[in-house]
Amino acid sequence: MTNEEYDDNFQSAKQKEITLTYAIPVLESICVDASSLSNPGPTEYRAVDTQTKKIIFSYKLGEATNNIGEFLAIVHALSLYKKHKKELKIIYSDSQTAIAWVKQKTCKTKLKRTESNQKLFEIITRAVNWLQTNEYSTKILKWNTNAWGEIPADYGRKQRGQNQVLTSSFSAVGVRRFERPTTRPPEINFQFLLCSKQLYL
Q: Which of 128, 32, 37 is nearest to 81 (CA)?
């Protein structure tokens, strides 16, 4: 086996590990998603309760990339629940890249650091530091968009397609589709919001 073949097999195995999910979503969980108006461009992310679709937190990053937003959303959720000593069994994300970054405890963005995005890279650094200095038991799983429809935290800005029109009923194959949040309830007023340097402890 050549080194190239070994690398391909290794990457394939890692992808299978990342994409391992249950047959149906575990409702006792949260989902995260990010949205960029362009890539890079104005970016925001949020987390919602998978079952109730209540928004748990949201944050506007300014100019960033979608992968950075997805990555920070996962770390935000991990740190938030650990700070408040709340159990968090599962986080769903539809970004394999972000899940891989979190597992590797790094952010491998190709976005170049400039004077205008210094704050963003400070946040990324705090997120990476948090991952490298904290332990957690939360499972971070890939949302199965093909089977379940768009992730409940989705912003609904993609062009609608067959798998992107969400309903609250079960599909013909018995897999429940999920509505995305239609209203924005009051967000939880945590003391260590992302804009605070105390978020990633």
A: 32
Residues present in the chain in total: 201
187 burial level (CB within 10 Å; 0-12, 13-18, 19+)? middle
Distance of CA 35 to the CA centre of its chain: 11
| The architecture CATH gives domain 28-144 | 2-Layer Sandwich (3.30)
Domain ranges of the chain: 28-144
> What's the pLDDT tens digit per position in 22-77?
689 999 999 999 999 988 999 999 999 999 999 999 999 999 999 999 999 999 99
Give the sheet arrangement for strand 41-49, strand by strand: 55-64, 41-49, 30-36, 90-93, 139-142
Stated pTM of the model? 0.74
pLDDT one-digit tens code per residue, 106-141: 999 999 999 999 999 999 999 999 999 999 999 999
Strand spans (E) along the chain:
30-36, 41-49, 55-64, 90-93, 139-142
Q: How far is residue 33 CA from its own chain's centroid?
A: 5
